[in-house]
Structures are given as structure tokens and as C-alpha cells.
Amino acid sequence: MGQRWEAAVARFIGPWRARREVVGALVAGSRAYGLADRYSDIDVHIVMANRVKWRERGIRKVGGYLVEYFANPLRMYPKYYQEGSHGGSRGIATMFGYGRVLFDKDGSMRRMRKWARRVLRKPLARSGRGEREGAKYYLWATADGLASLRDRRSPGFWYAYYVGLDRVIESYRAFVGGETPGEDKMWQLLTSAKFRRAHRMAPFRDQRFTAMVKRCMRAKNPAAATRDFSRLVAHVQGRMGGFEIDGWKLRMKAG
């Protein structure tokens, strides 16, 4: 391994590789995808045989790098994928499909790569009618609350604003069946084709939505932020079929 971080990975993975219960390992994340900066750690995933009854997560400093590792029995990864996909994340499948395999003792990594790439060809589930109607109301309530905070010059305005913006993005993501990264990478999803290619994430097809979100992220003062946020909410509500607060109701089956 030519790079310093790769040498650190080799040092770290050696003892794990010698263990009988470990069948494979890979590096994923920004290091594997060529997007690392000086703050990036090294994500190492250690795959163990299905007979193993435990899992482990930890961080070690090796050669000046923080190595965050995840050790799991092979059977756990499809379960993790199902859990993550409900929240718009296909990171597990991307990891196995395109991460850098360090070793593969019994073909498990090769089989998981085939599984991952097959899964990545399938669309994520979209929100149902009840979820969409509930989202439209909550977005209206968030915009209304922001206007009140703005008028009162509340110190809580910016906290509510960015929490609300996250809610708008998540509601729209669920509506279109899209995928989103962690909050620290959202701007890259919106602006960087290199990031999207590396993480196998599609951009939002609605370019107006993307432009409006970027405008909201650049907000400098509460007045402009409230205006742009309300316009974004109205756009999302319109895409979801429209919304009118007067007379709104949502009837659902009782449990």
C-alpha cells in the first residue's frame, strides 16, 4: 500500500485478519471513494462468520489516523440495509458494492458485492398517502412557527430554521423515494457531481427544489430566511398535491 493511510489500515487489520471467525474486510467512506480531507477518519468494516454471536464498534488511532471499525456477523448486513433504507440511506449496499475489499477468505465479500449491486438497482420506497398528508401539515406548521420566531426576534430562530429545513428535505426525499447522506454531506449532494458519483447517489431531479434548498442554506438574515423557507415549503406541498390549512384533515384507520 503506497499511501500513509493505507499503511495504517494494513497495520490495523492484520490482527483481525488472523482471527478464525473473520471472513473478510473492506474500507469504505471518503478514504475509499477519494473524497477525504484532513478531518476524515478511516472506515473499516470487518465481516465475521454467521456463527458469531457478538458485534463490535470502536475507534483506534493508528499511524496518525483515526480508524473507526465495525465488526459484524455477515447475516447482520442485509438487516442493517433494510433499517437504513426506510430512512433514505443505502450506505450499507454502497459500501459492499463499491468499497475497497481488503481480503476475502471464503468468497463472502464477492457474494455480498453481487447482492449489493443488485439491491442498488432497485428504487427506494416512497412515502404513503398518510405520511404525505401529515408531512404537508407539519411543514406548514414549521413555516408558521418560524414567522412567529422572526417577529419576536427570538434567539431560537436559527435552531428552528435548520431543524425545519432538514424536515423539508426529508419529507421531499421520502416523497420522491430518494437517498440523502448525513447532514455534513448534504451540501455536497446538492452541488458536487464528484460526490454523487463516488457515493452512487442520484441528484434530486427537481432542479427548482435543489436551487431553493441551496438558497435557504445560504440565508443571512431571518427575514430572507423565512421568505425563502415558506416558498420552499409551498413548492414541496405543491408537488405533493397541494395544501390548504383551512379545512385540512387526515382520517386514518385506528390501531
Describe this structure in words.
By secondary structure, the protein is α+β, with helices and mostly antiparallel strands. It folds into two domains: 4-120, Beta Polymerase, domain 2, CATH 3.30.460; 129-239, no CATH class. 53% of the residues lie in helices and 14% in strands. The chain contains eleven helices and five strands; from the N terminus they run αβαβββααβααααααα. The chain has a five-stranded mixed beta sheet with strand order 3-4-2-1-5. The mean pLDDT is 94.
Contiguous low-pLDDT stretches (5 residues minimum) are none
Shape: elongated
Strand content: 5-15%
User: What order do the strands of the largest sheet run in, or round the barrel if closed?
Assistant: 3-4-2-1-5
According to CATH, the homologous superfamily of the largest domain is Beta Polymerase, domain 2
Number of helices: 11
Distance between the termini: 57 Å
Give the rounded overall mean pLDDT.
Answer: 94
One letter per element, helices H and strands E, the order comes to HEHEEEHHEHHHHHHH
The helix/strand class is alpha+beta
Q: Which secondary structure elements does this structure contain, and how are they paired or packed?
A:
Elements: H1 4-17, E1 22-28, H2 29-33, E2 42-48, E3 56-62, E4 65-73, H3 76-85, H4 91-98, E5 100-104, H5 108-120, H6 129-151, H7 157-176, H8 186-191, H9 193-199, H10 207-217, H11 222-239
Parallel strand pairs: 2-4
Antiparallel strand pairs: 1-2, 1-5, 3-4
